[in-house]
């Protein structure tokens, strides 16, 4: 049985699938339960770039539970297969719940430090896990996750999967599936 999507999401996915513009896809704080959704989104939109701003296995809280490292490693392997199999150019920022050494093992040269600024087709993107990593960076877009905070020129990957089209600089957000916040460990939205 095919997945039924809200009308607005269908329109956005149709637009993203049909555009000739360069597509930058931004995700953050991804629990393992969201990997299939992310893979489907990649298949439907064919992004040219994928940026993950940390907490790659957000259902495993390594900061508090380092004993879950084997579970984290297995899930990270799955996500690496999805993202690397996309053919998109990758950028990955480790988050506070990540093991930086394992992230480098699975993503190699795609790993960048929080606060890095990259340029794609003349557009500057500041990449960080938290808003503090990017708020003072000279960039056209500031990509981050970690919590629900919004900042000037910021795109928060916790709130949804962000797409930036270039050269127009139009942005679109596709919401994560229901239950994603619960799988991240949020019982309710904090900070609102």
TrEMBL record:
Gene3D superfamilies xrefs: 3.60.21.10
GO molecular function, one term: hydrolase activity
Residues in Calcineurin-like phosphoesterase domain copies: 23-107
SUPFAM superfamilies referenced in this protein's UniProt entry, alphabetically: Metallo-dependent phosphatases (SSF56300)
Any one Pfam family match given in the protein's UniProt record, by short name: Metallophos
InterPro entries (alphabetical): Calcineurin-like_PHP, Metallo-depent_PP-like
Protein name: Metallophosphoesterase
């Amino acid at each position: 049985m095919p997945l039924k999507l809200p009308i607005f999401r269908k329109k956005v996915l149709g637009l993203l699938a049909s555009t000739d513009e360069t597509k930058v896809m931004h995700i953050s704080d991804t629990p393992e339960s969201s990997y299939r959704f992310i893979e489907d989104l990649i298949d439907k939109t064919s992004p040219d770039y994928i940026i993950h701003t940390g907490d790659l296995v957000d259902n495993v809280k390594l900061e508090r539970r380092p004993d879950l490292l084997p579970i984290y490693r297995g899930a990270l392997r799955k996500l690496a297969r999805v993202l690397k199999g996309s053919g998109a150019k990758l950028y990955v920022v480790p988050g506070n719940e990540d093991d930086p050494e394992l992230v480098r093992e699975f993503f190699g040269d795609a790993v960048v430090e929080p606060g890095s600024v990259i340029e794609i087709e003349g557009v500057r993107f500041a990449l960080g896990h938290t808003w503090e990593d990017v708020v003072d960076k000279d960039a056209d877009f500031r990509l981050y996750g970690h919590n629900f905070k919004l900042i000037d020129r910021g795109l928060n990957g916790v709130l949804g999967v962000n797409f930036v089209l270039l050269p127009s600089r139009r942005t679109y957000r596709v919401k994560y599936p229901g239950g994603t916040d619960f799988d991240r460990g949020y019982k309710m939205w904090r900070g609102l």
